[in-house]
Amino acid sequence: MPDFGSSQQDFPKRLCRLDLWLNPVFDQLIEAEPGIGLSVLPARGDDARTLAGLKTAHAYHVSAARDELPRQWFVNAELISQCPDLVCVSSGGAGYDTVDVPACTAAGIAVVNQAGGNAASVAEHTYALLLAVQRRVVESHQRLRHDTGFSREDLMGHEIHGTVIGLVGIGQIGSRVARIAQGFGMRVIAHDPLLDADTIRSRGAEPVGLAELLEQSDVVSLHCPLDASTRGLIDARAFAAMKPGAVFISTARGGIHDEAALYHALQGGHLRGAGLDVWQQEPPPRDAPLLGLPNVVATFHTAGVTHEARRNVARSSATQLIAMLRGERPPQLLNPEVWPVAAARIAKLK
Q1: Which residue of the set 253, 257, 272, 310 is catalytic?
Q2: Which residues belong to any copy of the D-isomer specific 2-hydroxyacid dehydrogenase catalytic domain (predicted)?
Q3: Cα angle vertex 43, ends 30, 36, to 5°?
Q4: Which of 164, 199, 276, 323 is a plausible cystine mate for 195, CB 3.0–4.6 Å?
Q5: What is the CA radius of gyration of the chain?
Q6: Could you tell me which of 19, 59, 20 has the C-alpha nearest to residue 40?
C-alpha cells in the first residue's frame, strides 16, 4: 500500500486518501500519472500518522459518507489550518457533507464532487423503493414467509401509471428519474430553485413551486443536496400539505426531511407509505419508529452503492484530481470562484 516515505517526498505533487473502501480504479489511475505520489493513510487507529500525511498533501480524496468518516478527517477550517499545502479536495460522491466548501474557498482550495457518477444507480433505486411501497412487495414477502390463510386481495397495491411524481431537485439524478417516469406513464413536475423554467422543461418536467408540487403530487421524491437552504425543508407542514394517500421517497440526504413528522403522517394515515434510503443517523437505530411501520420500505443509503456507480465515482474523482494537479479546470468544480487562486498555487508545484 502506498505511503509517504522518503522517496515519495521527491514527487512534486502529493495526493492522499484514507483506507476506507474505494474501487481499485482510483489507485490505478493515480499511480499511472507521472509526478503524483499517492499515500493511503489509516482512517482509524493512527491519527498521528494520518495527520502527518495530510499536513504535507497537496490533494485529498475524502469520503462523502459523514457517518463512516471520522470527524477529525472532515475537511473543515480546523483541518485546513493544519494543512497549508492543500490545494485540491475531491469528495467521493455527489454529496459533500464532509467538506466545508466556504472554508476551502477562503483558503484557496478547489473542491470537486462526482455529480452524475452514481446517477443511474440512484435513479433506479428511486423506483425500486417506489414500486416496493406501491405494490407492497416487502409486506407480501413477509406474509408468505410467516402467515397463512390470507388472500391476494389482502395485499392489493396500486399502479404508478397515470400518477403525478413531484421531484424536489432535477439535477443529474432527478433528470434520470424524470425520464424513467415517462416510461411508466407518469406525469412529472419539479421544483428546483437553482434552475429556470425552460431548463426544468428540457429535463422532462413541468416547473412548479414547492407548495404546488406538494399539493399535486401522488409521489414526492427528493433529489436535492443537503445544505442550509434544504435542511428541514420537508417538515410537518410540508407533509400535511401533501395529498392524502401520497407516497414520500428520499434517496437524497438525511436531514432534508423531518423523520418524526414523517412517522406521524404515516401512522395517522395521511400518507400511504414511504421509501427511505437516507437517514439522520446512518444506519438508523434498530428501534427507529419508522422501521416499525409496515408501509415503510427502508434501505441503508445504498442507492448509489452499486459496483458500477462505485467504479464511476472512483474514476471521476481520480480523473478530476489529476486534471487539477495538471492545472486544468475540472468539470465538477463546486467553488468556481476560487479556481484562479487555486490554479496559481498549483502552478508553483511544478
Answers
A1: 253
A2: 66-335
A3: 20
A4: 199
A5: 22
A6: 19
CA 242 vs CA 134, 217, 235, 265, 325: distances in Å? 17, 7, 11, 10, 48
Host H or E run for residue 277: none
70: preceding bond cis by omega (within 30 degrees): no
Contacts of 104 (CB under 8 A, 6+ apart): 75, 80, 89, 110, 111, 335, 338
The predicted structure's pLDDT at residue 10? 63
Write the CB contacts of 216 (distance below 8 Å, at least 6 apart in sequence). 164, 166, 189, 208, 243
Torsion angles phi and psi, residue 304, rounded to 5: -100, 10
Instruction: Return d(Cα 180, Cα 189) in angstroms, integer.
Output: 13
DSSP state of 226: -
Rounded distance between C-alpha atoms, residue 275 and residue 277, angstroms: 7
Query: Are the CB atoms for 114 and 93 separated by under 8 Å?
Result: yes
- Cα torsion 135, 139, 143, 149 to 10°: value is -60
Sheet holding 36-41, edge to edge: 36-41, 13-18, 59-62, 88-91, 110-112
Give first-to-last CA distance, the chain, whole Å: 25
Closest CA to 2 of 68, 14, 34: 14
State the cell numbers at 68.
463512516
Selecting among 158, 282, 315, 329, the annotated active-site residue is 282
Digit-coded pLDDT (tens) for 324-343: 999 999 999 999 999 999 99
CB 167 within 8 A of CB 190: yes
The pTM of the full predicted model, rounded to 2 decimals, is: 0.86
Distance (Å, whole) CA 234 – CA 342: 37
Q: How far apart are CA 37 and CA 27, in angstroms?
A: 11
Q: What is the spatial distance between Cα 56 and Cα 86, in angstroms, rounded to a whole number?
A: 8
Specify whether 301 is catalytic.
yes
* % of the chain at pLDDT higher than 90: 91
Q: Rounded to 5 degrees, what are φ and ψ at 109?
A: -105, 125
Q: Answer for the pair 11, 35: CB distance below 8 angstroms, yes or no.
A: yes
